[in-house]
Specification:
245 residues, alpha+beta, Alpha-Beta Plaits, 7 helices, 10 strands, 24% strand
Length: 245
């Protein structure tokens, strides 16, 4: 039996293949019960948020990894900032200042996040910024161009930077007044990983499972695989239209 609607993604920067296989069983495991008449406008809004967050998370992760955005910074405010539009504008001005200082356009992705501890304790939604770039920028330059508060730089691996940013766009806004806002922004011209929806032969899954050091996750019946072994990456791509990459 062939596997339809599979999603194959290839990151050229890390020579990594990810494959998503949708669940095709008769009964999806652990499916939550849905009662008639129980769906409210808030339920629909939450469902739409969940779907848009998943799309944004996938796009954001792809941009971070494919463009090697492994240097992450946090920008904070010295006062309690709850104006989302002002935060967006402040970062746009900050990016322009950096471009002029560096004398080139620097690559970045930006996420606006809520301070989780304060949100839980005081029910306030104080905002700050995370951004990741591939550019080596000195602490003094970032501090000089961000005039609104403190700055912090984090030393993380590329995948941990991607995971941290994805975590922030998923965790904070679901019950927030900001839940309808855009999840992230990115500089123009960033490369995207190669991605394709395709039908795979049934033995393709066996190739995935037997790949060395394969990473596997099951999401309510949907299956996700990550393969980094160079020889198996080559074999997996050779079975698809990615073979010419």
């Amino acid at each position: 039996m062939k596997i339809g609607n599979a999603v194959l993604k290839y990151y050229s920067n890390t020579n990594t293949v990810e494959v998503f296989l949708p669940y095709y069983g008769v009964h999806r495991p652990e499916a939550p019960p849905v009662r008639r008449g129980s769906v409210s406008s808030m339920d629909i809004k939450a469902e739409n948020f969940s779907k848009s967050s998943k799309r944004a998370a996938t796009q954001l992760k792809g941009l971070v990894i494919e463009n090697n955005l492994n240097k992450m910074w946090t920008l904070t405010y010295r006062h309690d900032m709850e104006n989302y539009d002002a935060v967006v504008s402040d970062f746009v001005r900050f990016a322009r200042k950096l471009n002029r200082k560096l004398k080139k356009k620097f690559n970045y992705v930006r996420v606006i996040a809520i301070q989780e501890a304060r949100a839980k304790k005081y029910k306030s939604e104080i905002l700050h910024i995370h951004f990741a770039t591939d550019e080596e920028i000195s602490h003094s330059i970032v501090c000089d161009k961000w005039e609104h508060g403190s700055i912090f730089q984090s030393n993380r691996s590329l995948e941990k930077v991607a995971g941290y940013l994805v975590k922030n766009i998923n965790k904070d806004l679901k019950q927030s007044k900001y839940m309808d806002r855009k999840r992230y922004s990115a500089s123009q011209g960033l490369k995207k990983p190669y991605s394709q929806v395709l039908t795979l032969e049934s033995d393709y899954k066996e190739m995935l499972i037997t790949s060395p050091a394969v990473i596997y996750k099951n999401y309510n019946g949907d299956e996700w695989f990550q393969v980094k072994d160079p020889e198996h990456v080559k074999k997996l791509l050779g079975r698809t239209n990615f073979s010419s990459i």
